[in-house]
Amino acid sequence: MTGTVIAVCRSEKTGTKKEPCGAGVFIEDYGLEGDAHAARGIARQVSLLAEESIDKMRALGLELHPGDFAENLTVGGMVLFSLPVGTRLRVGGEVVLEVSQIGKTCHSGCAIFQAVGSCIMPKEGVFARVIRGGTIGTGNVVEIMKEGEEGDHGKRG
């Protein structure tokens, strides 16, 4: 299973939607350079959301864009939330991300939840740690690494 990066998004402040930036530098054990959520040693350094998940909310009548759920990477063509924790993803042939958490508690002030009474992040938002850094840009391929691949360290995908 492979996917494609639809958008790379960042924000300077927490609690706000992220803005598409075309490409970004992902720093090992930190996250996206210039993003408010990036930090060393935490499990949720990078957030990912499938375009197909966003489409579910669009079907409820919302006009939504990449970054509206505060995701760093919007990915098309992959069911991200079905990946087990520990799965490693190679993005753009260079960056390695390791899935660290599926879903999160949606804060009560979430504008999407207030508008339609539901949100996809609690079940379909994916979080990852940056195992190997580099640049990710729109159009990059996202692929599940096989056990034993360089940078995999035995994690299954």
| Secondary structural class | mainly beta
The secondary-structure element order is EEEEEHEEEHHEEE
Kindly report how far apart the N and C termini lie.
10 Å
Number of domains: 1
CATH superfamily: PK beta-barrel domain-like
Mean pLDDT: 88
Radius of gyration: 14 Å
Oligomer: single chain
Please summarize the sheet with the most strands.
7 strands, mixed, barrel
Principal-axis shape: globular
Q: Assign a percent range to the helix content.
A: 10-25%
What name does CATH use for the topology?
Answer: M1 Pyruvate Kinase, Domain 3
Structure overview:
This protein has 157 residues and is mainly beta. The protein has a single domain (2-144), classed as M1 Pyruvate Kinase, Domain 3 (Beta Barrel). It has helices spanning 51-58, 111-116, 121-124, and strands at residues 2-10, 19-20, 23-27, 31-32, 46-50, 73-76, 88-91, 95-102, 126-132, 134-137, 141-144. Residues 152-157 have low confidence and may be disordered.
At a glance:
With 157 residues, the protein is mostly beta strands. It is built from 3 helices and 11 strands, in the order E-E-E-E-E-H-E-E-E-H-H-E-E-E. The strands form 2 sheets. The chain has a 7-stranded mixed barrel.
